[in-house]
Amino acid sequence: MFFQQLINGITLGSTYALIALGYTMVYGVLKLINFAHGEIYMFGAFVGMIMVTTFRLSIIPAFIISMLLSSLLGMGIEMIAYRPLRKSTRITALISAIGVSIFLQNLGILIMGPATRPFPRSIRSYYVNLGAIKIDILQIIILIVSIILMVALHLLVKNTKVGKAMRATALDKDAAYLMGINVNRIITITFAIGSALGAAAGVLIGLYFNSVSPLMGSMPGLKGFVAAVLGGIGNIPGAMLGGVILGVIETLGAAYISSAYRDAIAFAVLIIILLVKPSGIMGVNVREKV
Amino acid sequence: MQKLRKLVWISLLLMVVLVFTGCGQQGETSKQDEETIKIGTVGPLSGDTATYGVSTKNGVEIAIEEINNSGGINGKKITLIPQDSKGDQAEAANATQKLISQDNVSAIIGAVLSSETLAAAPIANDAGIPMISSSATAPGVPDVGPFIFRNCIADQVQAAQLAEYAVKELNLDKFAVLYTKNDYGEALKDTFVETLKSLDKEPLVVESYVDGDNDFSAQITKIAAQKPQAIYVGGYYTEAAKIAQQAKQKGLEVIFLGGDGFYSPKLLELGGDAVEGVIFTAGFYDKDPDENVQKFVAAYKAKFNEDPDMFAAQAYDAAMILIEAIKKAGTTDPAAIQAELAKTKDFPGITGKTSFTENGDAVKDILILKVENGAFKRIR
């Protein structure tokens, strides 16, 4: 049973990791916690669901369209809600992000209605049997997609010209601008990629839990954020690790302590880790320049 | 760029202005119109429990429309003032306060969730405004005071009847219980477990979850290890559908049992073939051949383009019971309405005959439904 619970935890954790990747991406470049990320995840799930049900597309084109449309949404949010505030304090942008999050949630309720809708399972049910343990093929797909996206993102940031420009922007916006980097373009690209990651998470998780609803982003969004902080916010492999650790802690806590306190256990562990290592597991402790 | 930004700000400003003037107009018309009877509803119209509140409001709307179309109550039309509680206790209390002190309603249908009703009911009772909840099934709701009524089957009654049915009729022996951590789930779990004990049975494992949870794998793995024949889920249909699906994914084959929180077409839509064979208690059955039931179902479908659920049906009946009491009282004086409500006996509604006990609790028939071939079927 312990092994089965561990698998449950890793699966749940890989969903958090998928969401955390988008958070970490935006934070790494902008030092902005994009609280609307959970709603982009919700938007992505809805687009995927509508593509599969109304337009009768198969899951792979639905997945790609959802990522594309969500990047557009992400870029739009950045342009309307964050760009005008870029010169103000960080707290202003954070409040704007919370506003966007609440706005999108309620817009979702207005347009789609408050009820949870099914996400038709357009992948054939298949189980991998490991002795007494059954693993759903979707669980494996979620884990593999998270790892692929993580590696791709890591390579993009470390090995491409755009990635170099992103790192430069992250380090010092003004200096990057002086060096001829189009900072606005880089930030737009960052949001586009971060939002596409959110949409990928939305479609896969919507599919796995067979449900999408306008409020589906709030709790997983928070957990994704916690996962990103746990792993060291701004650090891409850290987001992945943080997500998996959070999922495993939560599941084992629910299994061996009490299922009623699973969230409390998860957040208590977060507090402890932050007390011991404030920069997160894989984060580097950087002193703020004054 | 600068121009564009200005344009965005101006349009935003316009939107805000429009929203506020919209509200102002609404307030004015309701003030002008003194010749109507005002009824308020309190329930979640947004947030993750919104479906229950929206169904409740819709059910009341159908009842009011029906009465207004046939000339109103003693010549007076009824206006409905719906309030959003967001499923939150403080918001429900505020909304109730607003209905009473600002809108001067004669009576309130609500609140919807047990927890929010326990917060809102004392306010209505202290103000002497009759309040009928059509879905707050937790213990203690009618005990708040003489002005508080409810029109739904109590948790204790339905959980006890289902436990007996499962043991005596279905000959089940090994049970697990999985419940949502709120007043509704706790009451169902407590009664189900107590009734099992009175029948010399003991649940093998009792686990809980929180509404809105997506992942139940930890609980299901733990339950599966005890090999039960049936799982009693004390909760609502959204989570119940997910639990059934995840249990199926994990290869756990059991009979799912539940309460009236299961009764919604959404259970079938979300659960698919995983909810086949689910057995639960309910206060309403939309395939009932009764003429009034079919009239209600048709009117609801025509107006809202979906099948009514139990929340809508019980709210419709609550509104009809209230309208009947206002008719008999011949006045909108809340105390007179309360006196008439208390006398309600064998009211023929679409959820069966309803009488109120001395403290305002409903005595109603309890149905047992089963999911068969993707549809609800009455088995008792």
**N→C terminal distance of chain B:** 69 Å
- Low-pLDDT segments of chain B: 20-33
Which CATH class of chain A applies here? Mainly Alpha
Strand sequence of the main sheet of chain A, in spatial order? Answer: 1-2
* Quaternary structure state of the chains depicted: heterodimer
Structural class of chain A: mainly alpha
Topology-level CATH name of the largest domain in chain B: Rossmann fold
Work out the number of β strands of chain A.
Answer: 2
What's the total count of β strands of chain B?
A: 15
Helix content of chain A: over 70%
Which sheet architecture does the biggest sheet of chain B show? Answer: 7 strands, mixed
Computed CA radius of gyration of chain B, to the nearest angstrom? 22 Å
User: Which CATH architecture of the largest domain in chain B is right?
Assistant: 3-Layer(aba) Sandwich
CATH class of the largest domain in chain B: Alpha Beta
**Annotated CATH architecture of chain A:** Orthogonal Bundle
Q: What is the H-and-E element order of chain A?
A: HHHHEEHHHHHHH
Count the DSSP helices of chain B: 12
**Gross geometry of chain A:** globular
Whole-Å distance between the termini of chain A? 52 Å
Chain pair with largest interface: A-B, 39 and 34 residues
Describe the structure.
- The complex is a heterodimer of chains A (290) and B (380).
- Chain A is built from 11 helices and 2 strands.
- By secondary structure, chain A is an all-alpha fold.
- Chain A has a single domain, classed as Orthogonal Bundle (ABC transporter involved in vitamin B12 uptake, BtuC).
- The longest helix of chain A is centred in the first third of the chain and has 29 residues.
- The radius of gyration of chain A is 19 Å and the shape is globular.
- With 380 residues, chain B is of the alpha/beta class.
- Chain B has 2 domains: 192 residues, Rossmann fold (3-Layer(aba) Sandwich); 128 residues, Response regulator (Rossmann fold), CATH 3.40.50.
- Chain B is 47% helix and 18% strand.
- Chain B is built from 12 helices and 15 strands.
- A 7-stranded mixed beta sheet of chain B has the order 7-6-8-9-10-14-15, sandwiched between helices.
- At the A-B interface, helix 1 and helix 10 of A face helix 2, strand 7, helix 7, helix 8 and helix 9 of B.
